[in-house]
Amino acid sequence: MALTHPLLDPAVRGAVARAASAHRGTPWTGTGFTDLGGRSSHPAGVFHGTPFPVFAKLAVAAGAEAQITAELAGLRLLHDQAGVATAVPVADGAVPVPPGWLLLAEALPERLPGDRTPADWRSIGRALATLHGVAGPRFGLATEGYFGPLPQPNAPVRPDRWATFYAERRLRPNLRLAADSGQLPGDLAAGVEQIIHRLPTLAGPEPHPALLHGDAQQHNFVSIPGGAVLIDPAPYFGHPELDLALLGYFHPVPRHVLDGYTEVRPVDAGFAARRELWRMFAYLAVLAVDGGTPYGRRFLARLDQAIAGYR
Q: Which of 28, 112, 121, 306 has the most neighbouring CB atoms within 10 Å?
């Protein structure tokens, strides 16, 4: 591993060792490092050591402290409200370092996504269904959050209906960010606006507000022998179908996920027809952040197809 990796800066390594030692009240000694940058929007990796390994993620952009503390608050919310397994913070979980802020958690003995078994996928579905069994008083959340590096507005709306919340708190903010990035063609922006106006007729049956993971793409679940562990949440109370739609918006997921989900909760028969509708805000988020890259430009076609599907 090249010493240029930001997590291998001596100041960062020292902060990890101090936090890990304080976490269990015993000296911690590092023995190695595995880079996980390919699976995260931030520099991330596992510091191997005794008596336990530590997962670390580094945020360096403006608002890094707010991003890290919001993620930790989200983990607490999901665990406390739904009783699902979430990543366990090391010490306080949030540690300032010269480049920015670290999020530290106990590393897990995971089965990599490509090696997941049908039981692993079903466990992810059951964990999501358990979350969705927690009802909220209204759509949204009292605190703001982050969807990846982007701000996520959660304030409730009037009227308190899902189509209104999704339009005003998910589609419109990300539409503005994608347009401001210069990477969203005008015809696609106009297409999203048309969808926003038609949302009341496209959104299907009105759901009860349910606790969502909020960024439930498949890499935000860690598969361990005991079941699925939730990481990187962006929670609020919303439509359960949004979480189900996000599971496969980067890469398809097997049917086993829905099999596990429906062991706990039903899925409306119209969900498949609405799946792309709930992915549109996430496509806009990718364009806002990475729209100038070959990877990001792939989502122009996906957004175009989604818009065409609801005209």
A: 121
Residues recorded for the chain: 311
Note if the pTM is more than 0.85.
yes
Please tell me the distance from the alpha carbon of residue 5 to that of residue 20, in angstroms, as a whole number: 20
Q: Are strands 29-35 and 44-50 parallel, antiparallel or unpaired?
A: antiparallel
- Phi/psi for 292 (5° steps) reads -85, 0
Q: Which segments of the chain have a pLDDT < 70? A: 1-3, 38-40
Contact between residue 53 and residue 41 where contact means Cβ atoms under 8 Å apart? no
Cβ atoms of residues 147 and 70 within 8 Å: no
Q: Map out the domains of the chain with their CATH numbers.
A: 6-106 (3.30.200.20), 113-309 (3.90.1200.10)
Is residue 91 within 8 Å of 54, Cβ to Cβ? Answer: no
The DSSP bridge pattern shows strands 89-97 and 100-106 to be: antiparallel
Are 49 and 29 contacting, i.e. CB atoms less than 8 angstroms apart?
Answer: yes
Average pLDDT, the chain: 95
Candidates 120, 215, 232, 290; catalytic one: 215
9 catalytic per annotation? no
